[in-house]
Structure formats: structure tokens, C-alpha cells
Specification:
The chain is about 50% helix and about 5% strand. It is mainly α. It has one domain. The strands form two sheets. A three-stranded antiparallel β-sheet has the order 3-5-4. Strands 1-2 form a two-stranded antiparallel sheet.
């Protein structure tokens, strides 16, 4: 097997091979998952995005997980109690945020070292996207509408990717976003922007298909 094949292939289960019993892995690795969620909260600039059950189910279904896994992962992650929302006039509750999605995907596939190098970098990411373009486009179309209008700097994107073991530079992400994400922004003072839709679709495609440890 060539180096490129090892990078594009997987050593862990593909999402469609993951049985509902694998949800137990989330409890086994709860400490690592919660720590990664906290790290990614900082990587995104301490922004929080709370998810609802239908969105979680659609995203995990789009990634290839079975209906049973996609339908039950919301409560499995919420039970980790890594973030709590208190609202006036309502009982406080644990939530499921975007920060933990990629790590959850990797853990369900059997990864035990979230953030270890995935082998994806500036030099091979386009080959990866060519191989897994159908999945990437499916995830892009599944992202909520609001993610198309939330623009983050490619530097933030690169920090997020690094937290997940993905070695992509800010310049490469901006270049990719213009083509694969189909939009970028540039303000009067030179600040660049790439959409949350693109960043998340790329990281999730890698989480679902890259070789993991």
C-alpha cells in the first residue's frame, strides 16, 4: 500500500460499520472527549453553538452512521455533561454543541487518541477531497443554513483543524474555501473569512474517512 493510500484509507471502522453498541465508547472516553470539547471551544474563540436533536441526527446520518447510531448519539453525548445551559423560567439542562462533533465521530469509529496526526496536510488534502468528494458535498448540503453565513478567519480554521490532528495552513484553507466552499470574504482591512459550513464539512469528512489512531 502506498503512502497516499494509507493517508486516504482508514485503520478504524468506517461510520457505516459502527454498531449502536459503540455508543458505549463515548462513556469510556468521556474525559478525553470533554477535554477536546473544551480545547475546541477555545480554538473557535470561545463561541458556542448549541445543537438540537434533528440536526445531530441529520449530520451523523449524512456521515454514514446507521439510523440507530444517528438517533441515539444526541442523548449519549448530552449525558457527558460537558456544558450546561440555564434559561430564565426553565430548568437547566446539559447540551450538545458543535465543539464535540468531530471528536465524537472519531471516537465512535474506534479512535483512542483524538488530536493525533490524521496524515492530512496541505500537500494531500485535495487528493483526499477528490477521493471523498461525494461525502464532502453531502455534508455541505446537510449543514444548517446559518453556517453558510457565519464566517471565521482561516487562521481560526487552521487552529480548529490542528486541534483535530489535521495539518492545514490558513492560506490553504482560504484557497480551498474559495473552490470547495464556494465562497470567501475579504474586508477593507484585509481580514479574510471562510464559512463555518466549509470548515465543519471539511473537518467532519476527515473525521469520518481519515486514518485514525
Amino acid at each position: 500500500m502506498s503512502t497516499a493510500q494509507r493517508i486516504i484509507g482508514t485503520s478504524t471502522e468506517r461510520p457505516e460499520q459502527v454498531d449502536v453498541s459503540a455508543l458505549h465508547r463515548l462513556q469510556v472516553h468521556a474525559q478525553e472527549l470533554c477535554a477536546k470539547a473544551m480545547e475546541l471551544t477555545d480554538s473557535w474563540g470561545q463561541a458556542m453553538f448549541i445543537l438540537d436533536p434533528p440536526t445531530v441526527e441529520r449530520v451523523f446520518g449524512a456521515l454514514g452512521f446507521s439510523g440507530a447510531v444517528a438517533a441515539n448519539v444526541y442523548e449519549a453525548v448530552r449525558s457527558l455533561a460537558y456544558v450546561r445551559r440555564d434559561e430564565l423560567g426553565a430548568e437547566g439542562r446539559n447540551e450538545f454543541t458543535w465543539h464535540i462533533v468531530d471528536a465524537t465521530v472519531m471516537t465512535l469509529r474506534g479512535a483512542t487518541s483524538i488530536g493525533a496526526p490524521t496524515g492530512i496536510d496541505d500537500g494531500n488534502v485535495e487528493a483526499f477531497l477528490t477521493t471523498h468528494g461525494e461525502l464532502f458535498e453531502k455534508v455541505m448540503s446537510t449543514m444548517p443554513q446559518y453556517t453558510r453565513r457565519l464566517m471565521f478567519s482561516p487562521e481560526v480554521g487552521a487552529t480548529v483543524m490542528a486541534s483535530l490532528g489535521i495539518g492545514l495552513s490558513a492560506d490553504k484553507l482560504y484557497q480551498l474555501a474559495a473552490t470547495y466552499g464556494r465562497q470567501v470574504t475579504l474586508d477593507l482591512e484585509g481580514r479574510r473569512g471562510i464559512s463555518t459550513q466549509f470548515i465543519r464539512s471539511l473537518s467532519l469528512t476527515i473525521a469520518a474517512r481519515a486514518q485514525l489512531h
